[in-house]
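Researcher: I'd like a candidate sequence for this fold, 191 residues long. If you have to choose between options at a position, lean toward the conservative one.
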């Protein structure tokens, strides 16, 4: 039996949910009346969960005030919430997807740095971002191939895709353009 591995898994699950001071122990015994039965009991003391004290996004100084305020609307972490790795991951994904849709197609983020204050049951979170260059669409090119390539005009494709030069790159808008093109049933692929 690897009881210590099981204890570590339980502790890690509790830590992922903000219970940094939880205690887990195990008791193992064989049933005296039967040689085929064993009892394994885990004793868990959760203690208090940690709340988020601060959530800092670093490297976003070059964003305009307008764009930064729109970004903050995407964040669901606040100082009233219990720490959760899942909540942190969801927020980081929201930040990255929002900024990718604002032209920062090469944005990168570091792993979050989580500092735990076990005396006050509070957590400070810091994530570093590298925005990279902000991209605009310079031009839209239509390349057609296949047996029906002459049946669909470039203008119709441009209208359906609705991707305009000089707008900021948006991953979301590219995906929506692909969906609109597929829904016409005129295309078997769109890239």
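Model: Candidate sequence:
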């Amino acid at each position: 039996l690897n009881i210590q591995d099981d204890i570590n898994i339980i502790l890690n699950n509790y830590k992922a949910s903000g219970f940094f001071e939880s205690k887990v122990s195990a008791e193992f015994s064989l049933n005296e009346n039967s040689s085929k039965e064993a009892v394994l009991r885990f004793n868990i003391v959760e203690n208090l969960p940690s709340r988020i004290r601060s959530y800092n996004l670093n490297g976003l100084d070059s964003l305009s005030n307008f764009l930064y305020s729109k970004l903050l609307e995407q964040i669901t972490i606040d100082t009233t919430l219990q720490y959760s790795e899942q909540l942190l991951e969801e927020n980081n994904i929201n930040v990255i997807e929002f900024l990718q849709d604002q032209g920062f197609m090469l944005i990168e983020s570091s792993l979050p740095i989580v500092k735990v204050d076990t005396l006050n049951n509070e957590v400070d979170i810091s994530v570093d971002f590298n925005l990279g260059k902000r991209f605009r669409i310079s031009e839209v090119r239509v390349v057609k191939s296949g047996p029906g390539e002459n049946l669909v005009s470039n203008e119709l494709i441009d209208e359906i895709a609705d991707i305009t030069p000089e707008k900021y790159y948006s991953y979301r808008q590219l995906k929506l353009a692909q969906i609109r093109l597929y829904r016409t049933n005129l295309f078997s692929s769109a890239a």
